[in-house]
Amino acid sequence: MTDKKETKPGDNKPKQVHYQSYQEFYEEIPEEGSLGILAMGFQGILAWRRKREELKAARGETSTPETTEVTDG
Amino acid sequence: MAERLAKKVLLVGWDAADWKVINPLMDAGEMPALESLVNQGVMGNLATLDPPLSPMMWTSIATGMHADKHGILGFIEPAPKAQGVRPVMTTSRKVKAVWNILMQNGLKTHVVGWWPGHPAEPVNGIYISNHYQRAHSPIDKPWPLQPGTVHPKEMESIFDQLRIHPAELSGAHVQPFVQDLAKIDQEKDKRVESLARIIADAATIHNAATYIMETETWDFMAVYYDAIDHFGHGFMNFHPPKMAHVPQEQFDLYKDVVNSGYRFHDLMLARLIELAGPDTTIVLVSDHGFHSDHLRPMGVSKVPAGPADQHSPYGIIVMKGPNIQKDERIYGATLLDVTPTLLPLFGLPVGKDMDGHTLVQAFEEGFIPEMIDSWEDVEGECGMHHKDLQEDPWASQEAMEQLIALGYIDKPDENKQKALDNAVNESQFYLARVYVNKSKFEEALPILQKLWENEKQSRFGFQMARCLLEMKRYKESQAVIDVVRVVAKKEHKENIKKQKEEAKKRLEEAKKKQKEEGKQAKEIQTEPIKQRDKKQKERPFQSPQLELMQGRLDLEIGKYMKALESLEKVEKATPRLPGLHQQLGQVYLKMKLWNKAEDAFNKALSIDPHSAHAHNGLAETYIRQLRYVDGAEAALNSIGLLYHYPRAHFNLGLCLARLKRTERAAEAFEVCLKMAPKMKRPRRLLVRLYKGPLKTPDKAEAHQKVLDEETAS
Predict the structure, then answer these.
(1) Which residues contact B176 (CB under 8 A, 6 or more apart)?
(2) What superfamily would CATH give domain B9-352?
(3) Which of B43, B306, B336, B479 lies in disulfide reach of B356, CB 3.0 to 4.6 Å?
(4) Nearest CB to A66; choose among B168, B210, B275
(5) Tens digits of residue pLDDT in B393-417
(6) Is any Cβ of chain A less than 8 angstroms from the Cβ of B173?
(7) Chain A to chain B, count of Cβ pairs less than 8 Å apart?
(8) Is this complex's ipTM strictly greater than 0.90?
């Protein structure tokens, strides 16, 4: 019935974002974020969090509690 | 099993989305994603139900049934073990939702954020409850997911990380909504904080939805966003055109919020469309609209669910996908029709016990859905909760606070029993209104009588008087109206007293704060307040809705001049009151003043072009003037806005019969009788049509038999 092979919820957890032009997208993310990035959904928010952490780390600031990638916890 | 018409279906819910806001934005090219769906599919109004309370409406959308069948009656319900009240839960839904039916048929389904959606239902995909997105702790404190938020439980940790806390947002997220952010003192004005919360909640739901769409297989996916409703309740008063009572400074600050909220939703929709892929059928709906123009109320009723006064009776529907018509309008849809339209997309029959109908006009020509007696009788695992499942009430506390903050419900009393009694009364009142909405006045009346006996609240009495009026028990209706008038006056006085006390309290608090801050106290301007109080004293109390009902009652008992007097009194006080000119038109019709009636209905339509009753009134006026082509057009306009309107189908039939389009006339009368089987005139006319020009004596005989039986009984 489904268009892909049958899987259980959670089987396809992504390891990383996989846009074709990801690098370009990532480079353009401003540190303060934007509505457009929120509208991208989870890939956008994770990329924004990662970018923010990198910039903070580069400035020697401490990290915020949010995570930057989806993990099993 | 019938042919499957859709490969996959994405159902998107935008609470309170309204074409009146969307159309200008689409025209300006500011909602391109929605515009692409509209251009490639069908669009129309989706008539809401009464009472227009979101948990009831979204359950009707998901089940195709009225609330008396699905069992969700308002925002709150009694909590187990006498723990007071809690927000409504999925465990209280008595019937299968569309995702349960689909799962039962081997289709993979996911649900995100549906309301009510807690605890998450054990479907064969992922189910994220409507408690998922609410941030209930500061950003630097733990923010655990409430138990029951995610199904399957093993995926909790993933979805936990996809949430966005309002404090995580920056000015860059809020500035598109409020350009002069720097001008706002956020210590005093908490609107920016509430705006950030709405944005974060919507983005959190969107994260969960996009995650599922990218990583899971699916046949059906439902995702519900509540933000447009929240933008509306918080900021619609600042939406252009400026309302007289809104200060210019506030208007300038917040005038873009509502439009920006829609643009944000369009951006999210674009992503959903991209992830769904070109072959997916997309259905976008809202449960009701939201007044955005001159119909915006100045204030909301000081009763539970009072903010629903801002809701308008038409939501939206857009459908796009294989086998769906392209660039067409559909007419007469109600939110009860959504599930009966989704099931045939998967080749599944529609339950005869569903109150809605398949929107066949949305499909390519010649489509006829299959029917089944009831999906409730079909056994097998469907992903509903086990019947005896009970929830820990603490889990609902945060969602309850959000409802209180929005003004949907009153803060529960300290006394849990009182809160429980209030909740039971409210749910009974909503059930009675559901019956009134279904024209089941006999069933509504005893509930309302009991409520009225227990507590003299004008809203209980008002609905009771309305039932009695519809049941032609005019004397009793008049007696109740007389008491309601006294009660409403008393309530009005108490409200004014309460408002004064609140204003006094605020003033004292402001003075105290000024003193604490060591600032020199400004002279308080009391003169405008005194003038307002004087005006309130001078103005005689009037309840326009009550006077409208009085006018209607006088009209029914043939006191036309008295009816006119009541209505003219209302016109003087509130000339643009929705429904007033429609009622005046009815009085003029009875008085055979056709031109005046026509003027009145046209005036009603100039105030609210979406009034199905005014269009129908116009149809009746044209019929009296023997203008049958105009009459048919007006009746069709009425039906287009409100399909379940027997009187309009009757008027359409009458015009078509006079125009010698007898087959179509018979169809219209049949539809009318399906909706209102006790109406005699359409049945008599059908007997004549079937006996005469249509030459189908067996049908004439069948209708004659019903008439004879009714006469005999």
Answers:
(1) A35, B256, B260, B263, B264
(2) Alkaline Phosphatase, subunit A (3.40.720.10)
(3) B336
(4) B168
(5) 334 555 666 677 777 766 655 667 7
(6) yes
(7) 108
(8) no
